[in-house]
């Protein structure tokens, strides 16, 4: 069962660039976790660049950004370095984090169906409670919307 709005997010650990990610280590800070289908693809690159470019504004709102896809740590490290991302990327090869947030959906490409990540973003408050979610995200304007929510949460 997926996590519900206004419910605590269960602690989890996963391999990430910069070492293992542990949710509990981020208590006291707001956290944006964004799920994207694949490193080095146009939409995912644009989305990551948006979060990169707004990173200082998120930091000013006491908010940390983390990206998640099923790509390997090696691919993540290359993607992060190439794009200059100042945030970590979680490698979720076993889909445990994707399952926790229920972002694996049936998709279609060129008439073929497959299971893939539904581009989604989650805003968790400093107490570890899910406060907002965006599913089926369209990249243009999305980062600004998430930033506004993080800023509002920080003022609350």
UniProtKB/TrEMBL annotation:
Keywords: Antioxidant, Disulfide bond, Oxidoreductase, Peroxidase, Redox-active center. One of its GO terms (biological process) is cellular response to oxidative stress. The active site is at residue 44. Residues 3-155 form the Thioredoxin domain. One of its GO terms (cellular component) is cytoplasm. SUPFAM superfamilies: Thioredoxin-like. One of its GO terms (molecular function) is thioredoxin peroxidase activity. The keyword Magnesium does not apply. Thiol-specific peroxidase that catalyzes the reduction of hydrogen peroxide and organic hydroperoxides to water and alcohols, respectively. Plays a role in cell protection against oxidative stress by detoxifying peroxides and as sensor of hydrogen peroxide-mediated signaling events. It catalyses: a hydroperoxide + [thioredoxin]-dithiol = an alcohol + [thioredoxin]-disulfide + H2O. Its EC number is 1.11.1.24. This is thioredoxin-dependent peroxiredoxin. CDD domains: PRX_BCP. Signal peptide: none annotated. Monomer. It comes from Phytopseudomonas punonensis. Belongs to the peroxiredoxin family. BCP/PrxQ subfamily. InterPro entries: AhpC/TSA, Peroxiredoxin_AhpC-typ, Peroxiredoxin_BCP/PrxQ, Thioredoxin-like_sf, Thioredoxin_domain. PANTHER family: AHPC_TSA FAMILY PROTEIN (PTHR42801:SF4), THIOREDOXIN-DEPENDENT PEROXIDE REDUCTASE (PTHR42801).
